[in-house]
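User: Can you recover a sequence for this backbone? Please restate the input before giving your answer.

Assistant: Of course. Working from this structure:
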């Protein structure tokens, strides 16, 4: 029996609801498969903990996570705590020390879900966005001086290193190579950001020489929003900086029908440290406790986690169940225009997994 040690960090708001749903489904898959089990440890790291103790997680939190094979994360953020404290106190406090430098965001229009683009019926939109997850605009460099004075100044410095850009570029080219179309689009803003982004273009060209079978092109991030909207079928794998890909992945999720189905993986591709898997959506306090959060993003996220853990048949079974469930519009939650509950969607998933004889 293969045992995978999972750290579950549900966090805040609907993160708690969707992680619970995700774990139910994961346990059902393990039981169905018979070859592996998940040993789950629960962590209460959250805004609640911050209010009680002054810290979102213990000082050695990231180190505690090193003992696990993977991390399943919900969401973090609350209306009464500034978002930059939450982000730097928990999510980035895990991603950065564990060097989860490749953030992977697949997007496609799942069966039964309607893209807001009238010319898209499904197959025309099938992308993976690779987000540089360790530096760029989220490097944490900058500061504030002269508070309150007329000459008060605030800076956020974007940082691009040759090592950081090269490793994400190699990751993106390899991922593009593993997909049928072998097509990569490198996104920058190298007309206006004339140092770091020019380094990106230069390193892309260098790395491309090692991937002669991958076709690649370059886009400026503003024009990229137009191409994603008007010519979605012309794209496949996409690589962009931390902030650019953050923005593009929200657009991608919306074009695929709902942020409620969008998954993400924060990977350390070398597997020196555990990787972290999370739905893209946030804590959604407006719907917390109502039982209507869409758990599909977490199910898809869980499939990415199983794949990373080497449980490919279970990951495929999970995605097949997701597609069967989204195809039934009576199982759509309000973000998809329906009225189904988290419970109903989860129960349908469990029934599909248990009844699947393939
Ligand atoms: C994301 C989110 C986060 C980010 C927020 C919650 C800080 O938008 O994962 O895309 O910007 O990294
Ligand atoms: Mg985002």
């Amino acid at each position: 029996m293969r045992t995978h040690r999972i750290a579950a960090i549900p966090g805040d708001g609907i993160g708690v609801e969707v992680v619970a749903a995700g774990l139910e489904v994961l346990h059902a898959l393990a039981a169905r498969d018979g070859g592996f089990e998940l040993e789950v440890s629960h962590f209460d790291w959250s805004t609640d903990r911050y209010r009680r103790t002054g810290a979102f997680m213990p000082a050695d939190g990231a180190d505690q996570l090193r003992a696990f094979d993977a991390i399943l994360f919900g969401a973090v953020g609350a209306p009464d705590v500034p978002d930059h404290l939450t982000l730097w106190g928990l999510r980035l406090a895990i991603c950065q020390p564990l060097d989860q430098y490749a953030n992977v965001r697949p997007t496609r229009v799942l069966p039964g879900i309607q893209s807001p683009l009238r010319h898209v019926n499904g197959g025309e939109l099938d992308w993976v966005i690779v987000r540089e997850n360790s530096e760029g605009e989220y490097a944490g460099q900058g500061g504030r001086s002269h508070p309150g004075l007329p000459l008060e100044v605030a800076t956020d410095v974007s940082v691009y290193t040759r090592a950081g850009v090269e490793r994400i570029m190699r990751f993106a080219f390899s991922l593009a190579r593993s997909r049928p179309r072998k097509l990569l689009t490198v996104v920058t803003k190298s007309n206006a950001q004339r140092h770091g982004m020019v380094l990106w273009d230069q390193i892309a060209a260098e790395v491309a020489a090692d991937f002669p079978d991958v076709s690649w092109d370059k886009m400026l991030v503003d024009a990229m929003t137009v191409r994603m909207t008007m010519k979605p079928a012309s794209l496949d794998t996409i690589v962009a900086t931390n902030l650019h890909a953050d923005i593009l992945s929200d657009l991608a999720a919306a074009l695929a029908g709902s942020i409620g189905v969008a998954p993400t993986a924060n990977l350390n591709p070398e597997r020196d440290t555990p990787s972290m898997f999370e739905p893209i959506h946030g804590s959604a306090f407006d719907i917390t406790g109502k039982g209507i959060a869409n758990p599909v993003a977490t199910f898809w996220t869980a499939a990415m986690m199983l794949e990373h853990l080497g449980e490919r048949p279970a990951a495929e079974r999970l995605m097949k169940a997701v597609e069967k469930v989204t195809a039934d519009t009576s199982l759509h939650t309000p973000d998809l225009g329906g009225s189904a509950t988290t419970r109903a969607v989860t129960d349908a998933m469990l029934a599909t997994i248990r009844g699947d004889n393939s």
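That completes the design. The chain has eleven helices and twelve strands.
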